[in-house]
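Exercise 7.
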Amino acid sequence: MTKKLLIQIKNEWRSNLWLALELLVVSVVMWYVVDFLYTCAATYLEPRGFNIEHCYLIETGELTPKSPDYTPDKTADDKHADVAELMERLRRRPEIEAVSLSHSSYPYNGGNSVGPDVRYDTLVSPGWTVRRRVTPDFVRVFRYQGTRGETPEQLAEMLEHGDFLASDNLYSKYNRKLTEFKGKRFQLFGDTTKTYQLGAALQDVRYHDHQQAFNSYCFLQKLSQYEVGLELCVRVREGMDNDFIAQLKKDSESQFRVGNVFISEIRSFRDVRRNYQQAWTNVIRNYVMGMGFLLLNIFLGLLGTFWFRTQQRRSEIALHKAHGATDRAIFSRLLSEGLLLLAVITPLAIIVDWNLAHMELNSWRNGTTQEWDRLLLCAGITFVLMALMIVIGIGIPARKAMRVQPAEALHDE
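Solution. The predicted structure, written as tokens, is:
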């Protein structure tokens, strides 16, 4: 049957040539759309390297001399002790699992300390590596994990002992995993007189949901000085955060004002995440809606082409029926012809797709636009979608045409 179809396609080469060109253009455009949507989805679904479920951000403030409750003559050490006491009081609440203090470190914060080198021999971290200064419980609050299965508790102990932690992709430009350097000593901040031991390599920690882990670099170091206004983050035990914000606010004045330090605001990290990513979410939503509209137009155009083509072949269908062909055989022949045309142009479309990726005209992922597995996956999805359009475009009018009596169809012709 395939041989007969090829002969028929060859005999009708004029009309089939224009149809093949249309399929080629549509296939390339659809591949570009599918590639973009795949990149967005794959990036969003990548492991984040942290967990914000049941986590809350507590903002602190300091009373001014105008307040009647202000305590004068507080030294820097006194303020340090007041913040430490506030953290201890939070830890004693039964619903709180872990409490941490940090500087430009919590997820979705937008403010970072970047630029310090993490150097080992001739290997140097990228210039946009984020430095996170944290108390050891920070990794317990956000449940960081080590690449060798280190638990948050083990990572917290490493920070407590003065080791630093860093994401496993820190030396990705050298094609080296940081895991292999565990226990080695590194130079930080360009200081060649002192070295720091790497406690563990972390599973890659992403900056936000729309940035790939490939280019999200960070390292963690123990915070040495407690100050008012630093990031106070807590993790609440699972099932115990109902009305947590309301209850903590209710108790904040009576239980959580230490010296001049007080709790000024409490926010869920779900709200922090939503507010921080609103701009990215809006942009991606607009892109996705635009791509979806383009796909709809492609679908309707391709559907209409095959629908009209099948309608024009009513007499051919009637002639086949008059010669004794069954409806099933006619239906299979028409579908096979459309799908065979698609199969013939698909390799050509893949060649065009590869060249577009080689010229870096499609979406970036993992530091490149040209990945064979991604190219073939998106081309496969494109083929399936176009095949579905062809089946619908041929199937519906073909079934209607086969219900018409052969004599009537030939008479109309």
